[in-house]
Amino acid sequence: MDKIPFNKPFLTGKETTYIEDAVNRGKLSGNGYYTNLCQSWFTDNYGFKKALLTTSCTDALEMCAILCNLQPGDEVIVPSFTFVSTALAFVREKANIIFADSCEDNPNIDADLVESLITERTKAIVPVHYAGVACDMTKLRQIADKYNVLLVEDAAQAIDSYYIDPVTQKQLPLGTIGHLSAFSFHETKNIISGEGGLLGINAPEYIKRSEIIWEKGTNRAEFFRGEVNKYGWVDNGSSFLPSEMTAAFLWAQLEQIRNIQNKRISLWNKYYQLLKPLADKGCFKMPVIPSYAVNNAHMFYIVCNSLEERTRLIDHLKGHGILAVYHYLSLHKSAYYKDFYQGAELPNCDKFSDTLLRLPLYYELTENQVEYICDQIYSFFSTAH
Predict the structure, then answer these.
(1) What angle do CA 37, 42, 45 make, to 5 degrees?
(2) Which residues share a beta bridge with 51?
(3) What is the value of pTM for the model shown?
(4) DSSP classification of residue 136
């Protein structure tokens, strides 16, 4: 069998057609036809008050950090088991990062521990919906409201995923529950544009300023809508706006979101079905989808019993042409931040750093390839045990 990469970007076939159309329309710098198509798609389908395309999820998070209006010494609660951008966006605004541990059975922030981290300096809580699986948003929203702090959802991996309200049983799109949210369209995500992101705004009081920050600190968006007769520098900001070519690429993906999601979910379920007998024997742990969460099949992972066993399994799979990878290292132990960290041990974050293993999952992966990958995992554990 041919080598199986960890990821392969999927193209619908319309990307270059729409990019050519964007070029022919004569506006390339962004906030044009395709930008507005994509942004309207997000507000219409998921209910954001406002959606703004960005050049990356990192930029969307940096916009969130600016909108939080942080002052030196303010604190932001962030999970340690996440990508560096989740914390870095707020570090750039001079915030102190308060790292929180993961749940014992899944990598999401442990909502039961968050209230103990709140102080009079806390300005924001930033849950990350790891693998597109919802954090406990009822608990987090209650804490945010109780202490009057902002709730910023890092939904980088969570497009088309939902939180099930425990009272109404209504499915709420992830990214629409907090005050602000950030999504990624990096080539490793379900829906892609190479690089790209989205800022979701759910609190109306942040809409006007978000547009100014998005447009390099100017009121240019208001000018083009005819709301002011000239525009100038009025606030903080940067060049967060992507080009029309990026938006055109993204539009081709959004048109096919149901097809893409259905295929990924089918592959995820195939993995789960085939590997569950090994998990039942204690060889590793499977992903946990809480009762309040919906699975968007962003990734399939297993949690090994030790770092040493994970390393050997990675080597075994690589030897059979399969690229499986570990994920984040705990940020509180990173080379950049470890000398600043003065909090408690975060054992669950460290456990996932040492033992979580991501398996290949992408649109063009076949069921036969999933079966081959699972066969090799069975082969490894039959030898190891």
Answers:
(1) 110
(2) 200
(3) 0.96
(4) -
